[in-house]
Each structure stands twice: as structure tokens, then as C-alpha cells.
Amino acid sequence: MGTKAIVIVGKYDEEHLKIYREAILRSGLNPLLVRIVDSSWGESAIESNKIILENAWTAEMAKIEEKTLPASRREVILGKVPIVKERIDKPVYIKDMCQGLYRACTLCEESCPYNALKVDKKTGIIIDYDKCTGCGLCVSSCPLSAIQFPSVSQVALFELSKVKGDKTISCYKDNKNSIKLPCVLMLSAEDIILLRNGGKLNLVCNGCELSKDISKIKDIVSQINDKIGGISFVYPEGKIEAKDPKDVSIQFNYLSNKSEARKEILNHEKDLPLYYEVSINENTCTLCESCAKWCPTSAITLKRSKEDEIFEFDPDKCIGCKICVNVCPEGNSCSGPKAIKVEKKERPSKKVLIRDYLVRCRVCGAPVGSRRSLNLVKKTMKEKGAECDDEWLERCPKHRAEYAFQQRFGMAAKFKPRKFGEQA
User: Fold this and answer.
1) Which domain-ending residue is among 60, 88, 116?
2) Where in the numbering of this chain does the 4Fe-4S ferredoxin-type domain appear (predicted)?
């Protein structure tokens, strides 16, 4: 990495953590590249922290703030009050991993209960660190892992899941032996399944101001525990007891994001709560093709036969980004619900979402559109006072232009449009 990463074996309590942190900041090290392990925790704790540091490629992306440390008497006399660079361990946005989904995906923004994230459809995700509490719900929500914590990257979680044996995971505020994360709320269903893969999994939330947002992860743990067992979750108000563990074996070489992890998991275990189902309201859908054109994983595809236009859905490919919902032009907050809906579903099957008659050009036979979409075009044009007869409507763009030309200059007139760049 080109930057020093260190595991300190000593005492993990409030007093010693303060001492270590000040020493780390004074030395100029990145505190997010230093992990503290209590000497009583054993070799396995050291190894798990090494794995986190070996995959801490996000550590240098953290927001930096200057901080004044307590000064000694000598430093005050000499006028050398120590000012250091503090790294803020709150989620960072990695635009390259977003793959352009920010143009239509709003999962991270919707997941944040503090309104700390905004989606800018031109530049990407904007994080307001004054509002951000570091709960990690946005990290959990992103299917492409484009939002990650600087101290524990997504790849670090995947690599930890390869370690065989039982695991206990909690946050930095827990003084007991566990794998420390910024917050357990950052864990997605994919993370929990893979971490359970190597042995039993115990999640611990000791309670803080963020524990009020714990309902989502409780639901995820309950659903996965019902399927494969071996997962317990201790939180301030109670506990989810681990059910009898089933044998789970998910082998992989390298994963970079949760979408890849989901695919790998479903290749091994089909009966897990990682599926989404798309449904279409046939009364409002006009087959405009927006959902199929925008779908980043081709979970929704358009197929055409000689007579029909068909939209098919493959649940194995759907990552639940809801882009299809966001780009659907039919329905909004004023006129009613969208024509398309995405919701969690237990192992749905491939299906035809909607089918309609395919209209082809009356002249050349090229596909023009579905009957529903053309009916909408006709209705819209009439509402705006424009003429729209079926002869013009049921032609491809080229032959529509030809028809309009002949309507004006006579059917005998020859239509010879110039090619691009051709001189008049």
C-alpha cells in the first residue's frame, strides 16, 4: 500500500485507547491503518486485524480534519502546540465503483435517516459529514459497494469470511474480544451470509445513539438465521438466538462488491433471502422500454418476435437497485404509483412481465413499437392539438418523414433526404 499499517497488541480499554490514539496522531500515522488488539485475545484476533489492514485500500480516502492535541508544558513554552491530521471514519463515496448508477439509483439516499446523502445525477453522491452519524446504513444499502468505510473496506469483510471458525463482530466501543467494525449496521445480507460461511456468527450491539436504527439488520439476521441457522445477535433490547446451523460452503477467490457476492452466494445456495421480484401493472404500463434500457444487469430484457413484444424478468440477475422504478414515466407522487414495482421475494422464478402486439412499419416492416406505446403517442399528440393518423404513426422514422413530405407535396413527389454531410 505504500503506507504503514500496524497492529498494536496491548490493552483494549478506554484509557489505553486514548493513549494509543494520541501517540499514533503525533507520529503522523494514519489512525485508520492502526488496529488495537488486547493481549488476552489471542493469535486469531491478531490475524483477523491483519486481514482488515491488508485490505484497507479505502483508508486514505477518509475526510481529513486538523486537530489540536493536548500540549505539554514544554510545548506551550516553545509555542509548539501539536496540530495533527485526523481521519474521520465516516463513509466515503467511490465514484468508479458506482458505474454510473447515480444517474437513476437512489438507494443510498433513501437508506439514510439523517438526510446526510444526496444523489446528484450529474456528479454522483454528495455526503454531508456534519449530518452523517457513521451508522453505515448507506454502506449496507449499495449493491455495488460504492460507499464504504475508510477503516474497514468491503473487500476486507469478504476476506474475513474466508477464515474458518466462529466469529464475533461488534463495534469499536465494545471492549471484549471481537472483530471491530465502525458499526454493525454496515453489514448487508451478503456480508452476514459470507461471514457465517466459515462458522457460527455472533453479532453484538452494546447500544449507543445509533441503535435506534437497528430494525433493518434485525430483520436480515432473522431471515438468514431461519434459513441456515448459526447466527445470533445480541442488542440492547434483547437477543436473536442462533438456530441449529446448517452446512454452508461458499467458495470464492475474490469479490469486489456486494453484487458479485450475491451472485456467488446464489450459485451455491438458492434458498436465501437475496431475491427481488419485479411486477408490472398492465393497466398503466405502456411498454415504453425505459426499464429494459436502464436495467444495469439485464434482469429486465426486451424480446421481439414477428408478432409480439415481450418483457422478461430474471430474478437471478436483479440487484434491487430500483432504477427501473425511478425511470418509469408512468405514475409519480401526483398521478399515482409507478407502473413497475420492486420488492423482496423468496426465490421467484423467471417470468414474462408483460406482452403486447408489436407494430411494424407499414412500408419496410421494421419494428415501430408496441400497440400500447403507439396508442399513448397518438393520445398525447391529440391532446396537444397535433394531427396523428395511423398511416403516419405505424411507420418507422424514415418512412414517417417520407409520408409527411408526400402529404405536403403530393404522393408523386420523390422523397430524397440528404445524407449527413452531403452538400445541397
Assistant:
1) 88
2) 89-122, 123-152, 276-305, 309-338
Instruction: For residue 321, tell me if it sits in a domain.
Output: yes
Beta strand segments in 73-181, E: 83-88, 92-93, 117-120, 124-127, 147-148, 167-171, 179-181
What integer is the mean pLDDT of 107-121?
96
247-293 per-position pLDDT tens digit: 888 989 999 999 999 999 999 888 899 999 999 998 889 898 999 99
Average pLDDT over residues 129-147: 96
Q: What is the pLDDT of residue 6?
A: 94
Residue 380 located in a structural domain: yes
* Residue 421 confidence (pLDDT) above 90: no
Cell of 393: 404513426
- 57 belongs to a structural domain: yes
Cβ atoms of 218 and 247 within 8 Å: the answer is: no
Asked if the structure places residue 191 within a domain, the reply is no
Domain of residue 8, residue span = 1-88
Q: What is the pTM of this model?
A: 0.87
- Domains: count for the chain: 2
Q: Closest by alpha carbon to 183, among 208, 156, 159, 201?
A: 208
Domain termination site, one of 36, 58, 88: 88
Q: DSSP letter string over 164-196?
A: -S-EEEEETT--SSSEEES-GGG--HHHHHHHH
Cell numbers of 110, please?
Answer: 433513501
Cα–Cα nearest to 201, from 157, 259, 236: 157
What pLDDT score was predicted for residue 1?
46
pLDDT at 420: 57
